[in-house]
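Summary for the steering committee. One of the milestones for this cycle was to obtain a three-dimensional model of the protein with zinc ion bound, which we needed before selecting residues for the alanine scan. The sequence and ligand used are listed below.
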Amino acid sequence: MSPEQGAVLLCYHCGNKTFMDLINNHRLVNSDDISDNYVNVQYSVEFVRNWYTYACKVCGEITLKREEWFSEDTHHDGRPILKSQIVYPQVTNKESNMPNGVFEAFEAAIKVRHLDGAICVLSLRRALERMCNDKGATQRNLYRKLKFLADSKILPPILDEMAYILKQLGNAAAHADDVTFDEHLVSSMIEFTQMILDYVYNMPEKLKSVQKLMGVVEGRVID
Ligand SMILES: [Zn+2]
C-alpha cells in the first residue's frame, strides 16, 4: 500500500490496528554542498524529512508519522537508512535498539490504556522489568533491579524515582488494591515509562547520529 492512500497502522489512541487514510503529507529536503580540499572532491548531501498525517477509521483520531533519511547514512548496498517514527500520539521509538520484548510490553500498555488502567500499568511495569533484564540487572525484584541500574548510572536518580512510583503502582494493580487508575494517572505513567525507555535506548543512539553528522560537516568520519 503506497503512503499516498494510507497505511495499516496501530492506532495508539484506541488500540485498533486498522487501515488509516492518509490525509496530509509534507516533505522537506535540506541539501548542502560539501567540498573536501584534501582529496579535491565536491558533492552534495541531502537530509530528507517526510511527515504523514493519518486518520483512524475507528476512533477518528490523528496519527502523525515522520520518516527521515540522510544521504550519507546508508546500508552496505548504498540505499539510505530510513528512520520512521510515530511522533503523535506519544509513543516510544520502535526503530531504536530497544529489544522486542520491551517494546511489545510498552505497546501492549498503550493498547489497553483506555480499557483497563490497572492492566496498562502492569504492562508498563513488565516493560521496565524487561529493560532491567536486558541491561544486566539480575536482582530478584523490580525495585532492586532499578536500584542496580541507578547505581550503575544507566538510569539517572530522577528517572529511578519515577520508576519506583511505577513499581508501587504496578504492585497495587497486581494485588487488586483499592487504587483508582484514572486516565490522567495512567497517561502520566505512560509518559514516565517512555522517558525512561528513551533515556536508556534512544538517547545514546541520537547522540551517536549527531556525532556522525558533525563528523560529515567537519569532513571526517566518527565511527
Ligand atoms: Zn483509533
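Key point for the committee: The beta strands are 6-10, 17-36, 41-56, 62-70, 83-88.
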